[in-house]
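Data card: per-record layout.
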Amino acid sequence: LVFYDTVVETDEEKETLYEVRDESYYAYTVNFLKSLKESGYHSDSNGVILNEKFEITLIYAEKYSINFGDPNDFDIKFRVLYEILAEGSTQYSDKASIDLSDPSRATARTDLTLDFSEFVD
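The structure for this 121-residue chain is written out next.
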């Protein structure tokens, strides 16, 4: 991945057009995508929202909005996600929100207000 503000662009006077960030600023995105691929959940993923470093969200199986919170402990968060999905309490919901931001207090609830239209055809 290459983020636009990690590449230096200048105008005709050779002045930088914007503040250039170090690539490490976006390391959390690469780490999350790598963890997603290793978790096995990538194939049914519809989208990933990485706008905020501390609010990483996965749209999964055209049904779930999964908040991972900060970019720490992805392996634990994916294990907790597995247990929530295996437990089955949301299987009859049309749409559900899962919050894994604190894996020791993870929640799953039906949320019919979710709109996945930008992620699902």
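Known properties of this structure: The radius of gyration is 17 Å. The mean pLDDT is 92.

See the next section for split statistics.
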